[in-house]
Specification:
This protein is α/β, with parallel strands linked by helices. It has ten helices and nine strands. It has a five-stranded parallel sheet with strand order 2-1-3-4-5, sandwiched between helices. A two-stranded antiparallel ribbon has the order 6-9. A two-stranded antiparallel sheet has the order 7-8. The longest helix has 18 residues.
Length: 259
Amino acid sequence: MIFYFSGTGNSAYAASQIGEKTGDQICSINERIKAHRFYSGRELETAVFVVPTYAWRIPRLVEQWIRKSDFSSGLKAYFVMTCGDGIGNAPKYIRKLCREKDFVYMGCAQVIMPENYLAMFPVPSEEEACRIIQDSQEKLQETAKRIAEGKELKPEKENMAGAVCSGPINGIFYPLFVHAGKFNVDNTCISCGKCAKVCPLDNIRLVKGRPEWGKKCTHCMACITQCPAKAIEYGKKSLGKPRYRCPYENRNIESGKSL
């Protein structure tokens, strides 16, 4: 089974591409987290976790969800991480998680996708984003092939810079930057409520037809990138930036293979 978490569609798309090759069912972690549902099942022998990279590691809310879910001991676990430029030394922490869950670590693949973290970084144009996605195909297909064949993934490079990024910088990043305090909405808001609907943590509620953010934000950027009126901003950081969403994110996921 393929489990994915996705805010702007990159990991959803990667999960669908892998699913096409392996024939595995696809499960949205977003939906499970929103519904307060953890996985419980002893029939799985292999699981693929497809996630974005948050501060050079897997998202903390995904790690917490895996920890609280009841997977089989000895589960063969693959990890695929989509990112804008790199995953640092994320595999070190994934191996630790696998030891704690008694998983068989089958490797972690880094897949470069368009940058989507508009709260901090530049976001590519639509044309550039399509090119980056096209360039990701070789890595996605190679990764999917190895998973389908039950082989370990080729190890990604780990180095001192990655150790700093995935270690102390990750530890500083969450308390300093991951909050909803800078989200705001302007008068073009149409009160559709989509931002609240797509938030995996139910951190948004409509008050007099306008969204208000709570304190459980994970910076997935789903609310700001899925606002049909483009009425949401993140302070001044998002001004003038494209609202990137993977143009192929629903491929194979809306065709009856999702779970």
